[in-house]
Design goal:
By secondary structure, the chain is of the alpha/beta class. Helices cover 25% and strands 27% of the residues. The strands form 3 sheets. It has a 5-stranded mixed sheet. The protein has a two-stranded parallel ribbon with strand order 6-7. A two-stranded antiparallel ribbon has the order 8-9.
Length: 208
């Protein structure tokens, strides 16, 4: 399997030249690293070339590395049902620079790209309707970024007077607590209310 995938990677690299930054085969999977501006041309080649025939788009997802200047990976997974091959295409971007949309090549990319935009804030140029998909229209931030707070930025509730859902800043009713991971029995220094006699009984048993 690795030999066939290396041969396929070499075939793609030979035909696309500098558009391919590199490829590798790990765990019986082929990964291409590419520049984002070449994404449509590369995906079109993988779909149409007779030696590839990756005619099925399985997924588009984001990965966040906030310590990098280009913090996001955009990862495309394609399947060739005819040749029984899978391939991963990976590119990098940041929050300001869009990745070209491939909706014109694979209509299934529509919601995948919207999901990446919604959850990571990754932009896709040329997308016909790039708006949130999983969160609400008034949602603030992108919840799969690693610097997104666990509490979020806003909370919602139903207002009986307004007869609608309203959004408000998060208001924590108590400070975060530091848990010691001890069981309640190990962590208590005093007797449980209603069980004060238990200690006295133990003391009597210890006496000769």
């Amino acid at each position: 399997m690795d030999e066939a995938l290396n041969k396929l990677g070499s075939h793609v690299a030979d035909h696309l030249g500098p558009k391919i930054l590199g490829f590798k085969v790990e765990l019986a999977e082929l990964t291409l690293d590419v520049e984002r501006e070449h994404i449509p041309a590369i995906i079109a080649f993988l779909r149409d070339d007779a030696a590839c025939r990756f005619g099925s788009l399985i997924d588009i997802c984001g990965v966040d590395y906030p310590e990098r200047e280009q913090r996001f990976d955009v990862v495309y997974h394609l399947l060739s049902p005819w040749l029984n091959h899978r391939i991963r295409v990976r590119t990098r971007t940041d929050a300001a620079d869009p990745v070209p949309s491939i909706v014109s090549l694979f209509p299934a990319a529509d919601w995948f790209e919207r999901e990446a935009y919604d959850l990571y804030g990754i932009l896709f140029s040329g997308h016909p309707d790039l708006r949130r998909l999983l969160t609400d229209y008034d949602f603030q931030g992108h919840p799969l970024r690693k610097d997104f707070p666990l509490t979020g930025f806003v909370e919602l509730r139903y207002d009986d007077e307004l007869k609608r859902v309203v959004y408000e800043p998060v208001n924590l009713q108590q400070e975060y607590r530091s848990f010691d991971f001890l069981s309640p029995w190990e962590g208590m220094d005093t007797a449980i209310p209603g069980d004060e006699k238990a200690g006295l009984a133990d003391d009597k048993e210890d006496k000769p």
